[in-house]
Design goal:
- Helix content is 46%, strand content 17%.
- Strands 1, 2, 3, 4, 5, 6, 7, 10 and 11 form a nine-stranded mixed β-sheet that branches.
- Helix 9 runs antiparallel to helix 11.
Amino acid sequence: TQPSRVPAVATPSFGARGMTEPMYGVATAGTRLDCVQIDGLVVLKIIKHCRDEGNPSVMISGQLLGMDITLEGTTTLEVTSCFPMPHSSEEDQSGEEMESYATEMLRCMREVNVDNNTVGWYQSSYMNSWLDPERPTVATQFQFQDTVPKSVCLVYDPVRTSTGSVHLKAYRLTDRFMAKYKQHLESNEHGFTEQDIRPKFDYSGKCLDEGITIEDIFEEVPIRIHNSTLVNAMLYDWACEGTMGAKMHCDFERLDLSTRPFLEKSMELMLDGIENLRQDQERSEYRKRDAERKRKDYRRNAREEPSKDEMMKLFPDPSRLEGLLIANQVSSYCNSIANFSGLSFNKLYLIKELQENPK
């Protein structure tokens, strides 16, 4: 795996934008995030940051700036700016240096009157690698959402983008996962054990806790790309009357039928994920049996009968969080293959119709 880094979390400081208009209001922690509105310049900066790196398999990341507002019952997170974080391994720079860099960047943007409220972060992904348990996606997003409740993680896939359309999605940790993750961090417990992720029922069969599944980890938030009126006018001029009109109309790369490399790589990664899931299950079963054996030995040698809670704290069951993340990654591979195959069939039917009816 590539060297990973947890971006520094900057404490947000909401400005006055949106306070003077009575129809707007700053979103509170209890409101639901309905949409993420991203400026077109932010999308171009993320794409440029990934291209400058040169290697699509290397993770790049940065911080998102903007503000979340509520208008007529709809909460929207406006992302108006961003800046990249330097790519480095843990040996190159410490967490304090990365945090100092982020703080200095926010100070510079405040001096030039640019939005400097941290609303999340972005990262690149190579074939859904952002769900890899060895990457700090869950821990970093938890830090952001714990500090800024409406923060998001933008995931940009350069490989999928090369097939004809920009692949950019926004994700958040669900409220149930956030509560469970925070509970385990505050109580210093071992992690997501098998008992924690299973549903719990009372004596009458009523469900007390639905448990945690792979669908309860991340939730996707709709994205809307926004451009100013001047940018829209410039693009319209280029398309209709400018010198770049001919080039912009020749968008034949969307009809590219070379899907074999992507599908082969997706199938390979999906099979690797299934094998990793099998190995994780075997390790968890072995550690569970080992913990049960240690509890039996401790109870046999103890002078007083220990309680069940005491035994679970001394010899806890293995954490299944890594297995949940691997299963979620395999599920994303399956969905990507299904969606990409459907688009490929649509292209084939379209090309067939164009060949049969060239006029």
